[in-house]
Amino acid sequence: MARILITSALPYINGIKHLGNLVGSQLPADLFARYMRGRGHEVMYICATDEHGTPAELAATKAGKPVAEYCAELHDVQADIAKGFGISFDYFGRSSSDENRAFTQHFAAKLAENDLIEVVSDKQVYSNADGRFLPDRYIEGTCPNCGHVGARGDQCDECTKQLSPTDLIDPYSTISGSKDLEVRETKHLFLRQSKLRDTLDKWIDSKKDWPILTTSIAKKWLHDGDGLRDRGITRDLDWGVPVPDMPGKVFYVWFDAPIEYIGATAEWAKANGLGDDAWERWWRTDKGADDVRYVQFMGKDNVPFHTLSFPATIMGSKEPWKLVDYIKSFNYLNYDGGQFSTSKGRGVFMDQALSILPSDYWRWWLLSHAPENSDAEFTWENFQSSINKDLADVLGNFASRVTKFCRSKFGEVVPAGGEYGDDEKALIATLNQRLTAYNTHMDAMEVRKSAAELRAIWAAGNEYLQNAAPWTVFKTDPDAAAAVIRLSLNLIRLYAVLSKPFIPDASAALLTAMNTRDASWPDDVETALNTLPEGHTFTVPEVTFAKITDAQREEWQEKFAGVRD
RNA sequence: GGGCCUGUAGCUCAGUUGGUUAGAGCAGAGCGCUCAUAACGCUUUUGUCGCAGGUUCAAGUCCUGCCGGGCCUACCA
Hints:
single chain, alpha/beta, Rossmann fold, Methionyl-trna Synthetase, domain 2, Isoleucyl-tRNA Synthetase, Domain 1, 20 helices, RNA-binding
């Protein structure tokens, strides 16, 4: 039995995430976690809300609430939605926890001890009306290059020229609109990650099997221009992990957020009344974590922080913390020809998705179309046809036709009589082959390929049944038909087991209908198909997957289109 | 501007270290079945592999250029 530590990128606290965010982190991580648990491995799947930073403060202000209260509420909202999608976190923590505060300050102290922190004096724009320093993106003005009026302080969207806030003509705060801005001197701690460049470079080079998306982004940052740059890890904010001996400063979210992977594991230990050793055996290689395999899941926007700054933090501490072993990164999911947009209400967000269809529908479509090699696109037509064909027709209808036929001819009981013959042997051989392929793809986190293989496993049942034709055989040889149905009922149970990582709710419903709790991952298909014995009772399941009608599709298409550009 | 990814049947995508007639699912067509969610099975049509050159006995696969789509470019997170 192996020990697998899994983390998915922390969703930012500000608002509800859309399906693209889900498919790039929590969902594939959950698939992997469920699969690994199914295989009998010890899994720790950790995630948390990322709660610090300027956007959280502003959102709280807008909501008219203290930021701590706002974050607590939104954390619960996100936790509920994740639960609704069946995301099987072992713990869903908060980056604002006491644990994370302690770890963040600890790492900063260790980095300072090891001469990897330096104090840098910097000039930044301060807004008197807002009473805060403004990140570059929160300042807009007229582009000095092209004259575009709404240019941001970091870049002009019109001419794509990179800017500095002081370049802007007539700059104003996007928070208040105030033009009462001034440049102030402020001191910040910088992480001297440039000193670790060669170490990081060698480390990345050693990861031959990582997705190219992961390594190419890391390489770019390591080698672009003068190479990896030092990075400010503090901000002038109230809300965050306080920087010791620097009043008014907190650590930058991107410094404390990854540390929360560790923090949340410690939160888990505390919440379960366990001691420090419980989390340390996942994170400290000197305390039992040396045999842990650590896999991270994230969208491509998160890659630099997970390949460079977080490893720099870990390595720079010179303490025996567990480093990531594999980073699975994803491209983006687009929505019907464009991007998901919160501000325009375009696309389907997690809460809306659950309000119209069961989570398994979304899980299946998103995972079977995961943006692994390039950006993927959600369209309602594709969604409808995939769901109706794969889930309703191929899988759901298989369970339906088998159980209903059995009920009418033999009753709701696994029928006795007959022997397995050549057709059954051929099916078992096919399924063993496909099971091996499925396991291989799941082990490798090849999400789309896993889904395709699972679907082929489902389809094999229909092929077999059609060929065996128990409805015909029954007329002359009821025992032979009984053997076919006995195997087919067992096939339903096998499908429930193998499908559990993708569609856990339907899997549970099918197992309940088959009146069994035996969900053990099969080593061998033949054995697995003898699990439900003759005489075992079952019930005919309700419609496992109702089809999506054209009317529904059109209604949703309209509803989620958002306002036009 | 720079870097990276990507362009394969109407649609969504596979195509391993270059090797014979380029594959799958969906959609379309035909046949079969009637247990089932008008479901299932079998057969089958469709491709100048973005364009133009080059290397090679051999290129979807390697090289160069061009065209299209996307992402990143370090103070949003």
